Amino acid sequence: MLKAARRLPPPSPSPDRGRANRARSQAFFRTRSAFAATLLIAGGVVAAAAEASVRAGGETPMNETATLNASNDPTSPDKGAPSTGISGLAAEMRVAAADGVRTVVPGISIEAISFSDMPGWAGDDQRAALHAFLVGCEKLRDRFAGLGVSGRDLAALCGKVNKAKGSRAAARAFFEREFVPVWLFDKGAPLAGFVTGYFEPAIPGSRVRTDRFTVPLYRKLDDLVKITAAERRTATAAGIDPEYVFAPRTATGGLTEYPDRPAIEAGALSCRGLEIAWVEDPIDAFFIHVQGSARLQLADGSVMRLAYAAKSGQPYTAIGRILIARGEIARQDMTMETLRAWLEAHRNEARALIDYNRSFIFFREMEGDADAGPEGAAGVPLTPGRSLAVDRKLHAFGTPIYVEADLPKTAGGHFAQLMIAQDTGSAIVGPARGNIFVGTGVQAGRLAGEIKHGARFTVLAPRGSRLARASAQGEHR
Q: Model pTM?
């Protein structure tokens, strides 16, 4: 269960600055509801978490859920969705001083603040975030992200983590000593963020087809490859849509389009021995695709863990958005549970609706600690309530981000926790867009389905990183 945090009036190092920061924070929370009302429907309810996660440079699993819960999400996976105006930003920072707030990217400004300016920071227990950060140290890559934090900046701190393990005070001191909290602004106002939730399904299943388990989940073919930047021109010449991330390689070394969901469901992959597991219900299979991972409870009492391996390549289409457009479910009522209820009540129509989403997910069996969370795009197990899916073009994996959001009481109420960027998703677009990993199983699924709320993001930039220097000094990039 996510921990609720009490909102505290933050003390400030200087009266003028403290009043200004409090005013900005209060203005942000006052305007979030109005902002959310203007957002486009991201498409369903929690759906973009699965194939939304981008592993090793390609699209990955754990985030198709983001679009399912994004009925009011500013970061729709569809073209034309307003993402806060900075999707597709170049990595190069543009920094200019302006009244103490530095412009990082067109339309977005930054300001270094004090930890005392962060409501709820003193009430959070940062030990869980410290553990998630340490786990992520194993897979940090020297990759620069658009907001000015690199994997190298974060890796330089990994050797100091062990000294901070143990007490709550030591964990908090580590983050306060090694990082600079940075607020983001849009045209001078606090940048309005948005969070959704996602989870790992846990259902009965089988390694072989039986009378009960007749719906297959597939492993990927060896010839299905990620389209690299160098191969994009070849793919375009072959008639492959520029949005496609994966495609099968031909015998001559070229690329072609992979069968889509309707074709695969009609038998395009049958008799090829690609079935990795079987489940009972096609609706369960669909939501496993949406989440990008699953724990299958086998008849012998063991557990088979499935993780995202690849996707067919076609763009994701959120079926929840289609139902909203048809008037089947009101936008404000769209959640993962209401979507599932509609599919179960309209089974004769469900298959045709699901087929509108041409994107198809392939899986691999995950070995290792059975108690660990599913693997995120960063390549490490996710921690409930502490792992966050982010826009990886802007945030480097491993970056600590403090998230504040007024969630439903059933989801813990006011949420104020330090999280670690460890996953991504095609629906996760913009510097203040996140998807909270909630956990595993039915209860986690219900909780994830309720999260679609405005939020405040504070990025913790390693001292010495470009983001930290820009926020404090206004250096030009």
A: 0.73
